[in-house]
Amino acid sequence: METTHQHHNKTNTQSAADVASQHQSESMGINLSPLLVAQRKRIQTVFGNAQPTGMVIQATFQGNHAELNKLQAYLAMRDFSSEVEEELWLTVPQKYDNFEAALKNMDAEIRLARIKVGELVDSDTKTTTASSGMGRMVPMDTGASVSADRKAPPPLFNEREWFEAKESKRVSAIGVGYAKLAEFVAGCKRQAESSIPDANCAGYMKAIAAWQPASLKKYNKLRDLVKNGYNNIPVAAKVSNARANQQILDIFSWLIPLHDGTAKGIANKQGFMASAKSTLSQLIGTLAAAAGRGQGAPLKPLLKIAPATTIQGHQVGTQSEIRTSRAGALFSGEASVGRQLETDLSRMARVPFVAGHLVADSLGGILVNGNLTPITNTFNTTAGTKGIKDPENDGLRRTKAGQVIHYATTVAYGNRARTDLFATVPTAMTIKVSTLNLKSGGNPTNIKDYTTASNVKPYNLTMDFKPPSASSATTDTS
Known about the structure:
Elements: H1 2-13, H2 16-27, H3 34-47, H4 65-76, H5 82-95, H6 99-104, H7 106-116, E1 127-129, E2 137-139, E3 163-164, H8 169-174, H9 178-192, H10 199-210, H11 235-240, H12 242-259, H13 269-290, E4 302-305, E5 309-311, E6 314-316, E7 319-324, H14 340-349, E8 353-357, E9 372-376, H15 377-381, H16 389-400, E10 404-412, E11 428-438, E12 450-461
Antiparallel strand pairs: 1-2, 3-4, 4-7, 5-6, 7-10, 8-9, 10-11, 11-12
């Protein structure tokens, strides 16, 4: 049912040329999403109808369309900006014979693409790409010089090394904000009232109409939004901010029937729920600030991820950090997935390994190799010094208390001299959790202005898996 609705929505909004282009691509074995069709239009505005070598529409990767589909699936899973995604589509297929070869160097390609579009500073040349000039490099302003005998202390954060977290593709598909959510619900209402009514949308409309605001007082789900959020705001603040309060209640009436499973079969249900939660979090934060009980709307997280290091042909993370004021993975939007590395290690060690996040996904960590390292499933779910849960829970408690935090993880690989896959297993992990305070005169809604650390707590973790001696280790990954 969901697939049918999504297909009809796409078809009705595409021009005949777009449909013809997509049908032609599908006949070639390339599954073009509307995102890529739109991307093709943007690229053609630069290059015209003459497509550059490496365009996804052509037979690239030496004509292997299956490899192109792998690249498409990979990019669809990642939260790149449209500029970086286009740069990767234009360059990666030209450089490699197949997707697997490209994947081995993908972190380097992503870094080059981000430098090219101006999202990342080239640490070697201290330059950044200008927004115009097709890749022209211009020197960065390094600020006022300091005499050699009176060097200023290094800042806690070099802002040029951080990048803003993007909303997940699920959230972006709907959009954040009351108007976007209302538009989605209105679309379902039209389907419920059409000449051929949609039964699922009709049921959803009935569930919305039946929902009562008074039920929030005893509602025990969505605790961060309800019990620890909206229910803590004084009635006076809700009355004096009636418009925002009504929007919050409207969104709860749309979200809760889906969250509780009262309404089923709604197209893009998960995307709508993620967008609704993000919007509610912002509106509740604004209402709390009006009541003097918060900093205002939640601040968009900032990430800093060091380039992955390569060990035995596999890329693993070494250092990853986040500055955030919100719990939850609304900005990463990615489920944890296994890599071949963890699959092979599990077979070799006879112990379940997972791709562990250096910055937990529950705090906004994203699914890139620079933020992943192979750890046992036990380590991933255990508290104490032999597990990652204590620092993660510490960070979550602080954000739920309204604090801005700095969460930084460093991983050491003391076995990298080995010649088997156990070289990729970490030997030490340190996580530091800090509360960040607003600098004097800073803007409370700008996370970059939270620069002073307090209540710093380091966690020196002991890895729970020690590889067998190299002589006795098995290399069987079958």
